[in-house]
Amino acid sequence: GSVVASYPYDDSPTHRLTGVYSKSADDEVFKYLAKAYASHHPIMRTGNPNCPGEEAETFPDGITNGAQWYDVEGGMQDYNYVWANCFEITLELSCCKYPPTSELPKEWENNRESLLAFIEKV
């Protein structure tokens, strides 16, 4: 896990594991939507999620192009964009994939304003 808003494409023509910016035709719209979410999240907006084992990982403005972060061939985000004209971003909300129940109120507080801002944009 991490704390970042990721946008298409997740797949790249070279299928390199990481570091390839795979720009979609709607790249500016996706960046706008990702920033709308990230800019309202107290951790995500810093671009420094500080996840255990990944402390050096940073994301400018709290967002990333999927393939630049890591290449995913055949992902749902890309499939829905290409075949259904559905604009999706992927939200990584926690360093822990399954946070304990005791942390859920804090996660809600971290994400509430981001969710409202994102809904307003959509």
UniProtKB/TrEMBL annotation:
Keyword flag Hydrolase = yes
SUPFAM superfamilies linked: Zn-dependent exopeptidases
Q: Where is the Peptidase M14 domain?
A: 1-122
Q: Which InterPro entries match?
A: Peptidase_M14, Peptidase_M14_domain
Q: Which GO terms describe its molecular function?
A: metallocarboxypeptidase activity; zinc ion binding
Q: Cite a GO CC annotation.
A: extracellular space
Q: Which biological processes are named by the entry's GO terms?
A: peptide metabolic process; protein processing
| Residues at the active site | 92 (proton donor/acceptor)
Keywords, A to Z, come to: Carboxypeptidase, Hydrolase, Protease
Pfam families xrefs: Peptidase_M14
Gene3D superfamilies listed in its UniProt record: Zn peptidases (3.40.630.10)
PANTHER family according to UniProt: CARBOXYPEPTIDASE D, B, PROTEASE M14 CARBOXYPEPTIDASE
Q: Which family does it belong to?
A: Belongs to the peptidase M14 family.
Name of the featured protein:
CBPD Carboxypeptidase
The species this protein belongs to is: Setophaga kirtlandii (Kirtland's warbler)
